[in-house]
Predict the structure of Acetate kinase.
Amino acid sequence: MNVLVINCGSSSLKFQLINSDSEQVLAKGLCERIGIDGSLTYQPAGEEKVKTDKEMPTHTEAIQFVIDALTDAQTGVVKSLEEIGAVGHRVVHGGEKFASSVVITDEVYQAIEECNDLAPLHNPANLIGIAACQKLMPGTPMVAVFDTAFHQTMPQKAYMYGLPYEYYEKYKVRRYGFHGTSHSFVSKRAAELVGKPYDQVKTIVCHLGNGASVCAVENGKSVDTSMGLTPLEGLVMGTRSGDIDPAILEFIAKKENLDIAGLMNMLNKKSGVFGLSNNLSSDFRDLSAGAAEGNVPAKIALEVFSYRVAKYIGSYAAAMNGVDVIAFTAGIGENDGGVREMVMQYLGYLGVEMDEKANATRGEEITISTPDSKVTVMVIPTNEELAIARETVALI
């Protein structure tokens, strides 16, 4: 079966067409600037990327261009829509309603809509993508795969905030966690690589990208994760602050005359390693280059980021009363050996011993701890699109 995987943002749409039998990516691409001027980047397997400017007033036109590209007589990879057996949609927030992926029905669509308050920047865009596909592919089954679903196994002691209980009862204010599709994929692969059943391994997954989170996976279940009600909680990230003292908000609001919108913009867009580096960059390559040239704020940003990751690893080792595998994944986790080394220097108490040569590898699945290390440390490239396709096929 060929599965079309859709990841829809407010003005963008990423896609991959995956053959579920071979798990080969037949084609992939990106629609950008939807509603503005619009462009489509399209790449069939083994071919060069081609970028074309196209008017895309809405996501419906964007989906239509994707379908046209996939079925094009010259550059397409399928002859018609009949060769696409299902569509898997990434949906950011499923609240407490969804503990697993689901086939999309009218009732499911409405339930996702009811979670919009929890993810106002993401869920409405995800729903727009679903509606556009339903309009253009009315006979094709569709599945929603939630970023939050994997973390629905967290116990109350892990997801409750120290707030009045009524806010949980009335508004479901609690920790949900994100990057669940990635954490699930990587933890399963880690178990395969160490040759143990998934339900008998304690794994800490470090999904380190511009958005970053750490997850404790005990015997195949997420028992804690660093992100919270929103993706703002947890690690210092590219431009997000991560954990801070809540009283800082009142202090800065008074000093800078900021309202709630201004504060949230500061926390989400102007903080993290970008803010710490004195606005040098949120790209870790720029930070590393800056630090090597003696840029003190860049060096501090890298140190703060790595220290925070190490602290979360330590807390999750305690939460699970031990750890078998630590896995690094996503853009930074897969490619930045310097950051991995800075994190691992804090983990000697766990018996972690780093293989320096292996740690210099970029973007490959590899064990970066020595054979004598008491905890196996790995780099495992994530593949959220493949995970979505697998979930979709399993349900369809």
Notes: The two ends are 10 Å apart (CA to CA). The mean pLDDT is 94.
